[in-house]
TrEMBL record, chains A, B:
InterPro entries: Acyl-CoA_dh-like_C_dom, Acyl-CoA_Oxase/DH_mid-dom, Acyl-CoA_Oxase/DH_mid-dom_sf, AcylCo_DH-like_C, AcylCo_DH/oxidase_C, AcylCoA_DH/ox_N, AcylCoA_DH/ox_N_sf, AcylCoA_DH/oxidase_NM_dom_sf. The lineage of its organism: Bacteria, Pseudomonadati, Bacteroidota, Cytophagia, Cytophagales. Residues 40-155 form the Acyl-CoA dehydrogenase/oxidase N-terminal domain. Its cofactor is FAD. This is Acyl-CoA dehydrogenase. Keywords: FAD, Flavoprotein, Oxidoreductase.
Length: 601, 601
């Protein structure tokens, strides 16, 4: 078992030196906090991660949840973990004091998720609970909050997001689960949901589903979907809870993230499932989408955390494993073998992992910061933060997950044959991370969101804001001679994006959205590389300042120099990928749009 | 379970139309064969694959081999399979009539492997046996052949390749297993071997290890390694077999390819392991390396087969799974959902899978053809075939495996959430294929072989020969107006490779091999894209000819047009990747070579 699974030093660097988390406390909402309370929360999460999660990484993978007699049983350690999380106040950390929370910024909560998921992503339960409770506090009545939120935040109950149906995955407009109004104001729910994470298990006393359904007679498509609270056990009005006819039809056996049960649920088998409307009828999808940024930051963070744990495992192995001699000393057979970290190809793989994981973490904290400002600021500041966040989200969800998959693959490769065995954690992490480019909107969906909506909304205001932000980093970097070439390269990359957009916009004007979006995934990839390049330059500027002003030594010197080195690695090895992507994106040959004639694929 | 796992039509296209397998029968050695006997062998393999392998794909994955009381038990179907393969003559198909084989070309045997591994790569046993037997017939005495080969080729015994040791993976010069001469000419063997595929199991009556060891007093390094036959049970000279003190120390539990046991073996625990020298002392590594091309074609083919099976599963799903409407018809909520194959992004993923898998298969058959010619031709023809094969091998091993991993990842993505579940075969195939960039020489090792040896050997004769071969395809393609642009692009790509080589050669002249090879893996990637582009252009020329001369209709028309379409896809989507790779390869900034100062990675 690898002993290190994340770097506290790097987390503090990003949180305090790059993104200056404490500045958030100038807003009234966060004013009860300071740097110290932030760090205490991270220490508390680290303690839980170290003691209750990381030691069980393999165990929860090897003993996946099973459905027997209608009940799902999960690893006994899950219950202990949920209790500890509730007691530490970490499930409700982001909720207001009024709602029983700690009123902590998303930036801090995201770091908590990062630590927990790096320790053991198979224990992915509490983020779902927070998300479900957040929907209730945001859109439900005070009575609904009172009835459900306290037990959710203490970890006694489990929350879920119940969107997907067998015939409606990416296409939520095709949701068919029905809700029939009852005289008492509640609804009878009937239908099926699939892929519901933590959708049933015995570590919680009740499961509270935040479920999309269609009220009888509702409009078709996305405009007729409503949001309901559908508990596993419902209150009978006399302080008792009765079975709510939510049947566990099946538990999926999966490639990874085996610790958390992914459920197929059936509502209303006995015509006795009751749901409680959250907010207004037919507003379910807008409500869900207001939570989407939060959920997608969560997925990006999970991917980053998994890839980070794999990177540290690979790094530890590469430092210790001797194999062969250095290439210019091949004939020195009497000399001992060298640790593989000294081979350029292994070092390249490690730098790639460091570049991907620390670049992703930086972007996600940037997104979390924007999230916080969009919540607590006012006027233009709030609006701009929201627009920027909206634009960055498809990248912040997909880059960490897509590139995280590649990164863990390089972790496996660093181990050679041992990486393929269960003797080391990387084979499990390789399986675990593969879901992240799929859930909460596949990469293809993120790409359509980015190019089809975010780049053009409000007359293209979001990319204008973003380019201005990136411009600030470029200006900062340009003041240092050794960073200036990279600042210039980033300027050239922004121009490249604009050229690509110019070549694509005519399709929009022609109303040919299918053509406009046909290579959207490649645009997302190109955009992602540039965004991460920005994040690396930003980190390099801070590191450079520290080197100039703090005169660091030893580990600190190596840390800051490592940041600048990895920035260079990203620009020299990853950024050139934009060349090929731009060529394809500006290419006029259509090869993926169906015509009348069916090709033999 | 997907019903199709490979395309017989495509196999016949490559074998007969592109590579004209029957032309091999003009050589005396293959003269007993014709197109019909070739096809009969493929049909025989298909029958075994359909009936004894594919139906057990999941089963052998879910019931991995276990070591109990010193004996490894495998799935009972394995024994049935080995028997059938022996009876069909498929284990020995490539051996000479004298050695009890069918004297079939490697081209045909490679197609057999392709079919078998596409059906169920977890039953990867017989290729190992053929390889082991081939070492004995090639370098051993007639007595050794007589004693071991017949039972290997009938599938009653299992053969293995026992190279790797705990401290010697990529670095075979550090092998320490010892061989002490005995008065009777045999050797006492002592040491440990790890990662020995099929290294022990109960489906074979005996296990015959072809093992590398160092005779007492042998020179250090690669020049002191000898090859031995080390059986699990050895003949006692009186028609009995006795235990040869080869202990199964452990069976690795792995991420994939779970059907085949990967063993940790200990020789000489009781000082009673006897080995029989194969060929001359200290020639073990040259012998092994003479078999390496064969073994690496096998790995490339396994990777291609796995990715092909995943592609057909994804294709079937994409044709059947309705989800959402086409992008220009988003508002037609009353219309039924469209099969996802009609979404450009899904079609892009499928074309990528088709381009990678059929491109890889084409390259591997090219390599197999060269292998055959290098075996049976004479003089310059033989020598040139051998040089070309040697040059292509690093690509033929690594492109199918590296890009196969990517391809299966896109198969998973095509399925969305279902791809992550055990309900469909792609999650297993995703796990299975991940070993292929590791075994038989990791991608990093292949890259060093390509750039460090193959590009420069004999004064660079091999790339000259290759470029001349590619030139022929370019000339053929240039005669067709619609293929000419691609021919021109391929010419430009060859120039790009030459430019990269020109920028790297000074490092060789300076004797700085570490710098020369520091980005060898990227060179391999660049070279691989160009080689596969060549294979696609070659296929497109043949398809174009068929369209012009055969006037095909229906499925045949679609097949040939699909070939040209996929060639275009490869040139428009994959070839542009060379731009970024070349930029990095010509870049003078050094970022991966260790200097005095340790960076904080």
């Amino acid at each position: 078992m690898a002993t290190t699974y994340f770097s506290k030093r790097n987390l503090h660097f990003l949180l305090h030196e790059v993104f200056k988390a404490e500045e958030l406390t100038k807003y009234e909402y966060f004013s009860a906090h300071d740097r110290e309370t932030f760090n205490l929360v991270l220490d508390s999460a680290t303690y839980i991660a170290d003691t209750l999660m990381h030691p069980h990484l393999k165990e929860v993978d090897r003993n996946q949840p099973e459905l027997k007699n209608g009940q799902v049983t999960v690893h006994p350690k899950i219950k202990e973990y949920l209790k500890a999380m509730g007691e530490a106040g970490l499930i409700g950390a982001g909720f207001s004091f009024d709602n029983g929370g700690q009123q902590l910024p998303k930036m801090i909560n995201s770091c908590v998720s990062f630590i927990l998921m790096a320790a053991n992503n198979g224990m992915m339960y509490t983020g779902l609970t927070s998300g479900a409770a957040h929907l209730i506090t945001s859109f439900g009545t005070p009575e609904l909050s009172e009835a459900y939120v306290p037990n959710l935040l203490t970890g006694i109950w489990q929350g879920t997001m119940a969107l997907t149906e067998p015939q409606a995955g990416s296409s939520l407009s095709d949701v068919t689960t029905s809700a029939t109004p009852q005289p008492d104001g509640s609804y009878k729910i009937k239908g099926q949901k699939v892929f519901i994470s933590a959708g049933d298990h015995d570590a919680a006393e009740n499961i509270i589903h935040l479920m999309l359904a269609r009220i009888d007679g509702a409009p078709k498509g996305t405009k007729g979907i409503s949001l309901f609270v559908v508990p596993k056990y419902r209150p009978d009005g006399q302080d008792n809870f009765v079975d709510n006819d939510v049947t566990s039809t099946g538990v999926y056996h999966k490639m990874g993230q085996k610790g958390v049960p992914t459920m197929h649920l059936t509502m209303g088998s006995n015509d006795n499932t009751i749901g409680y409307l959250v907010g207004q009828p037919h507003q379910g999808l807008p409500y869900m989408f207001q939570m989407m940024n939060e959920a997608r930051i969560g997925v990006g963070m999970t991917a980053t955390a998994i890839a980070t744990a794999a990177y540290y495992a690979a790094l530890e192995y590469a430092r210790e494993r001797p194999q062969s001699r250095r290439l210019n000393q091949k004939n020195l057979l009497d000399s001992p073998q060298t640790p593989i970290i000294n081979h350029p190809d292994v070092r390249r793989m490690l730098l790639f992992q460091k570049a991907v994981t620390e670049g992703s973490l930086s972007l996600l904290l940037e997104a979390a910061r924007l999230y916080d400002i969009s919540e607590v600021a006012e006027g233009e500041e709030k609006e701009n933060a929201f627009l920027l966040l909206d634009l960055l989200m498809p990248v912040a969800k997909s880059y960490p997950s897509e590139m995280g998959v590649q990164s863990v693959s390089q972790s496996v490769q660093t181990f050679g044959g041992y990486g393929f065995t269960e003797d080391f954690p990387v084979e499990q992490l390789y399986r675990d991370i593969r879901i992240t480019p799929i859930y909460e909107g596949t990469t293809g969906i993120q790409a359509q969101d980015l190019l089809g909506r975010k780049m053009t909304m409000k007359g293209g205001k979001a990319p204008k804001l973003l380019f201005a932000e990136i411009g600030k980093t470029i200006a900062d970097a340009s003041t240092h001679d050794d960073l200036k070439p990279y600042a210039d390269q980033l300027t050239a990359e922004l121009k490249r994006i604009q050229e690509v957009m110019s070549s694509l916009m005519p399709y929009v004007q022609q109303g040919d959205i299918e053509r406009y979006l046909s290579d959207a995934t490649l645009f997302l990839e190109l955009f992602g590389v540039v965004i991460i390049a920005w994040q690396w330059l930003k980190q390099a500027v801070v590191a450079k300042q520290a080197l100039l002003t703090q005169n660091p030594e030893g580990d600190e010197l190596a840390f800051y120099e490592g940041k600048i080195h990895t920035m260079k690695f990203f620009f020299h090895y990853e950024v050139p990928k934009t060349l090929g992507l731009a060529v394809r994106l500006k290419d006029t040959e259509v090869l993926t749009i169906v015509t009348e004639k069916e090709l033999a694929l």
